[in-house]
Amino acid sequence: MRAISYLSATHPDARPRSPAPLNMNHYANKKSAAESMLDVALLMANASQLKAVLDQGPNFSLYTPTITLISISLCLQVTVGILLIFIVRWNLNDEQKHWRLNFMENLATGLVFIIVVVNIFITAFGVHRPNHSD
Fold first, then answer.
1. Other C-beta atoms lying within 10 Å of the C-beta of residue 62
2. In a domain, 68, yes or no
3. Is the pLDDT of residue 33 over 80?
4. Alpha carbon separation from 6 to 10, 11, 18, 20, 94 (Å, rounded)
5. Domain count, the chain
6. Quick one: 54 exposed, middle or buried, by C-beta within 10 A (0-12, 13-18, 19+)?
7. Does residue 56 sit within a domain?
8. Residue 94 domain flag
C-alpha cells in the first residue's frame, strides 16, 4: 500500500493536490477573534491606566482630560467588541447580508483607528502610578 501511494505521488503524470478552497466564514471568524483578543488586551491596559490616574487624584495636572480620554477609549472598545460579536455571528456566505457586514467591518475599523488615536494622547499625557512611600 505504501509503495502504491509513493508511486502515485512521484509519478510524472500525477497531478499535485490543490489546496482546499478558502472558507470565508472561517477566515472572517478567526480575524474577528484575533481582533477581539487585542481589544480585550487594550481594555485591560486602559482599566489599569484609569486606576493609576484615579490613584493620583485630582492633584494630577491632566486629571480631567486623561479620565475623559480613557473613558472615551473604554466606551469605544466596548462598542467595537459588540460589533465584532455581531460580525462573527452572521453568515458571510449570505449575499443579502454582505452590505451590512461590510458596513459593520468598516465601522469597526474606523472605531479602532479612533481608539488608537485616543490612546496615543493618553500615552502622551503620561499616566504614571503614584509613588507610595511608607
1. 17
2. yes
3. no
4. 6, 8, 18, 22, 42
5. 1
6. middle
7. yes
8. yes
Is 70 exceeded by the pLDDT of residue 6?
no
Q: Which residues contact 5 (CB under 8 A, 6 or more apart)?
A: none
Task: Residue 71: give the domain boundaries.
Answer: 24-125
Q: Within 10 Å of residue 38's Cβ, how many Cβ atoms? A: 13
Residue 5's pLDDT is 47
Residue of higher predicted confidence among 35 and 132: 35
In a domain, 9, yes or no: no
Mean pLDDT, rounded, for 110-120: 93
22, three cell numbers: 478558502
- Residue 29 confidence (pLDDT) above 80: no
The rounded distance, in Å, linking the Cα atoms of 65 and 120 is: 13
Quote the CA–CA distance of 64 and 79 in Å, as a whole number: 23
Q: Max CA-CA distance within the chain? A: 80
Evaluated on CA atoms 85, 89, 91, 94, the torsion sign reads negative
Residue 86 has phi, psi (to 5 degrees) of: -65, -40
Q: How far apart are CA 50 and CA 124, in angstroms?
A: 15
